Amino acid sequence: MLPALAPPHTRTDAAAGNASTTGAHPDATSTEGATTIAAPDAALQQVLELDGALAIALVDLGSGMALATRNVVPFDLELAAAVNTEVVRAELRAIESLGLREQIEDILITLSGQYHLIRLSSRPDLAGVFSYLVLDRRRSNLALARRALKALEDQLEL
Predict the structure, then answer these.
(1) How far apart (Å, rounded) are the C-alpha atoms in residues 71 and 80?
(2) How many helices and strands in the chain, by DSSP H and E?
(3) Half-sphere CA count of 85, side-chain side, radius 13 A
(4) Whole-model pTM above 0.85?
(5) Could you tell me what percentage of the chain is helix, strand and coil, using 3-state DSSP and rounding each to the nearest 5?
(6) CB count in 10 Å sphere of residue 149
């Protein structure tokens, strides 16, 4: 079992890309040493604290709309949400066409300078939602990123 993510200590203004120091997010609550996060923004901010994390979004697979976004560099997450919705749909069609009885955990897109990691939610109450994380390839660790997205899914409440 993964440990709960700690409340964020920095908050990034996604529009300006500015970081400022704050206390724990008001929507984060602690019970017996574990943190449950109710607000998507607080949960996304914790993932952005990973070394090399550049941008993250929660996306509705049905509409292609970003439900929540955070970024530390300028990045068009609304467009990325729509485009990556098509990537996920294409992979789902491929799995169905091949007759595979498998579920997608994640999809990795490797660029020359970035990793783009897509994780589909396996929770029934988050069906049709995926997370999309952009990482700096030189500074990030894919294993830690995958683990953080799983923890995000486990703790997230929409």
Answers:
(1) 12
(2) 3, 9
(3) 19
(4) no
(5) 30, 30, 40
(6) 23
Tokens of 20: 């400022």
Maximum Cα–Cα distance for the chain, whole Å?
Answer: 50
Give the chain's radius of gyration (CA, Å).
15
Nearest of 8, 140, 144, 129 to residue 70 by alpha carbon: 8
Which amino acid is it at 151?
Answer: A
Residue listed under structure tokens 């300078």: 113
Ordered per-residue pLDDT tens for the chain, 158 residues: 333 333 333 333 333 343 332 333 334 333 343 444 447 888 899 999 999 999 999 999 999 999 999 999 999 999 999 999 999 999 999 999 999 999 999 999 999 999 999 999 999 999 999 999 999 999 999 999 999 999 999 888 76
* Helical segments of 21-76, H only: 40-48
